C-alpha cells in the first residue's frame, strides 16, 4: 500500500539523486519522477532504480516523444509522465510495460488519453483548472478513472482537491527545488505526507 503522491524532482543533479530519493521514500512518498529536462536525468533515474527500486516506483516526467520512452525503459523505470496527451507516447509506454500518466486539461484530452491506454490522468496545470474545473471533468469520467492534480495543488489544499475528485497529487516546487538542502526536502515531504493522511485517513494503493 502506498500514498498516491508523486515527488517531481525537476532540476535534480545525479550526484544528489539517491540521497534525495531515499529521504523522500523514508518520509512516506513512494513515487518519484525525474523530468527529462533535468541534468542527465536518465543517470539519476537509473541510480535511484538500482538503489531504491525494491522500495519505490521510479519514473520519468516531461516525456514528449515515443523514442524517449525506450530510453527511460532501459533504466528500469516503471512509469512515464507527460505534460500533454500524446497518443503515440502513451501507446509506446504501454508496449514497453510501463505505467502511463499523460497530462490533460479538457474532457476531450481526458477521453483521448484513456482511449490510448493511459493508466491515470494528470490534470495539468491543476491550478488553472481549479476545483470547479476538476468537479466538472470528474462528473463525466468513468468512475474508476484515477486523476492526479499537478501544478497548483499544495498540502494545505489536499482536502479541498480530494473533495473535488482528485485521487492523488504530483508535487513539484512545494516539495523539491535544486538548491534546497536535504533537510528542507525531507521536511517538505513530511508535511505532504501528513496532509495526505489527514485528507484520506488511510493509505491507498
CATH T-level fold name: TIM Barrel
- Mean pLDDT equals 96
Low-confidence stretches: none
The computed structural class is: alpha/beta
CATH architecture: Alpha-Beta Barrel
First and last CA, distance: 5 Å
Radius of gyration, taken over Cα atoms and rounded to an integer in Å: 16 Å
Distinct helical segment count: 8
* Percentage of β-strand residues: 15-25%
Q: Tell me the name of the CATH class.
A: Alpha Beta
Name of the CATH homologous superfamily: Aldolase class I
Shape label: globular
Q: Report on the biggest sheet.
A: 9 strands, parallel
Number of domains: 1
**Element order: H for helix, E for strand:** EHEHEHEHEEHEHEHEH
Q: Which percent range fits the helix content? A: 40-55%
Number of DSSP strands? Answer: 9
Task: Describe this protein with a few key phrases.
205 residues; alpha/beta; TIM Barrel; globular
Structure commentary:
With 205 residues, this protein is of the alpha/beta class. The protein has one domain: Aldolase class I (TIM Barrel). It is 43% helix and 16% strand. It has eight helices and nine strands. The chain has helices at 17-27, 41-52, 66-73, 87-95, 107-116, 126-138, 158-164, 182-200; strands at 5-8, 31-35, 57-61, 79-81, 99-101, 103-104, 121-123, 147-150, 168-171. The protein has a nine-stranded parallel beta sheet. α1 (17-27) links the parallel β1 and β2. α1 (17-27) crosses α2 (41-52), α1 packs parallel to α8 and α3 runs parallel beside α4 (87-95). The N and C termini lie close together (5 Å).
